Give the backbone structure.
Amino acid sequence: MELAGFIIAFGVFSLLAIFISLGFYGRLGVRYPLGNRHPAFARYYVNKQEAEQKAESLLKSLLPSDQYNHLVRKGYLECQSGMYPYRTYRIPRHRGSVEVYEMGRLVMSLCVQPTEIVPDADVVVMHKLMIEGNEREYLRRANYFDRQTDPFW
């Protein structure tokens, strides 16, 4: 009887030790591939790379080669306003505010962000299509940061 109790107690303590070690597995610095703590990240990372590649090819197909080369070289895309003749929008290559220039002077920044996580190339396409397609609606949706009145500029 004592032997059966010992075996049960040993089994319970062994299982407890296993659960504790599994619980601390990620906290002890042991990492999964790709440097993250969970293998599901590997699937996300592959899907993210695919999405970024597709978005980049879409961006490249939508822009004329000189505009795409300018975007890659300078880090921003210039889009001429259809409503205001002396206005130019600078759309950043990576996330950030769209800068508004009038007659070559920076006058304000605009912030319009998608509600879901999308690749940066898709955000560039979004800004360009919204400005060229319906600039009035784009300006209505944007948050303004005015150079003259914003104390943080």
